[in-house]
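Hi team,

As requested, here is the filled-out complex form for the NAP run. I kept the field names the same as last time so the parser does not choke. Let me know if anything looks off before we queue the next batch.

— J.
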Amino acid sequence: MAIDVDALLARVPTGLLIGGTWRDASDGGTYDVENPATGETIARLASGTSDDARAALDAACEVQGEWAATPARERSNILRRAFDLVQERKEEFATLMTLEMGKPLAEARGEVVYGGEFLRWFSEEAVRDYGRYAPTPEGNLRMLTVRKPVGPCLLITPWNFPLAMGTRKVAPAVAAGCTMVLKPARLTPLTSQYFAQTMLDAGLPAGVLNVVSGASASAISNPIMEDSRLRKVSFTGSTEVGKQLMAKAAENVLRTSMELGGNAPFIVFEDADLDDAVAGAMGAKMRNTGEACTAANRFLVHESVAEEFGRKFAAKISELTMGNGLDEKTTCGPLVEAKALKSISELVDDATERGAKVLVGGKAGEGAGYFYEPTVLADVPSDARVITEEIFGPVAPIVTFSTEEEAMKLANATEFGLASYVYTQDTSRMFRVSDHLDFGLMGFNAGVISNAAAPFGGVKQSGLGREGGAEGLDEYTTIQYIGIKDPYAGH
Ligand code: NAP
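And here is what came back:
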């Protein structure tokens, strides 16, 4: 059933969520949200000020004690109800994401499934937050450890996965018993606003989740991070901003989870099933129009199969239909904003000036919206900017290698270490290369590997900590150790 877009937009709260109530910004300020496929303004939201940010933290701190004492089963039930509601509202969430971010509807529906799973996963993990009881090796004490919620958290999310990046943080925080201030990305706040309302509808008590978005990110985050009552910051976004937040977090010695940028290698060995590799490459590169931290950034292909891989990959890419994501025929949406379009154009120009060959695409789309044609570049020199920088768009540069050792060296030649992909039919090679690849995530003959049950995160400048899996809950708990005099120990 087609969604009535105007009616949906009218249902999305436009205020700041503070202490369970949606309210205007303290200075009455607003900011606009635009549809990147058309350049049209689709919503006007309250723009949070520093005072609003402080009020949101006050609300979170006020209920932290009570929320931490809520039985885990109750927190679990709220998450499970939220999971059900997100599924019921699947079309609404998908439409909102397509409207504000541009991804094709089919992908937006996929994100509702993926993002929703964090609610179900952490509803199940919430009741398994175990401690431990054991005697000390010397027998003088009994050791008891309990896990406690970290305390009030600031959660900052990016625009590229507006639902999943929120649920991946909010769900474990709820499961652990933490209260929160969520600051969604300025470009895509509507999904977070609707998600927050969904959490309230699922029974989340007032003040546990507060949402403040606005035109100035630092005006919101700085006063919160400077307040010693805050105990954690969890951030997903660029490495540049992540480093600034880590420096700021040091002032109050905050716990930090940092999910930052990537520069994923996609390695195709000479023994790979090339059709399988091309299918995997489509997912690893073109999902979300290439605007994913896990997106394959560099295709490292053995010289003996590079020509065939490039030809087959370019043929598949040319089958994509670029357009407004609300059109069901669209398989490649616009970039999120004008700045992104300019940056992708510059990266491709730099590569072609250095001798790269355009196999398909290679230019911006025509008309309104921020479109760039899905592109494959061959013979790209390894020092081209498109290889050394995170592309964040539908551009696939191919570099060749001749030995496994060279492939490993090229793959690791980056300050990033988030995702990596390897295509080979040789299992012993898989284990060998996984030993050598410095990446937190590895797809082996698989181009899309994100899953709520898996620990997601990077090494090097791609970040700290893990989201999802059992590990995702650890990020929101702290361990208290209680030493009890052993009843059999002497005085
Ligand atoms: P970004 O510019 O770093 O922004 C991310 C979030 O941080 C937004 O909410 C943004 O708010 C906020 N922000 C920006 N400057 C800030 C500051 N000085 N203080 C506090 N908050 C600030 O990143 P993006 O362009 O939205 O996202 C793309 C990046 O995210 C890519 O590098 C991508 O690889 C990374 N990413 C990583 C993962 C992962 O799991 N590792 C997942 C998705 C994306 P405004 O929107 O208001 O500017």
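Two things worth flagging: The radius of gyration is 23 Å. The first strand starts at residue 16 and ends at 18.

Thanks,
J.
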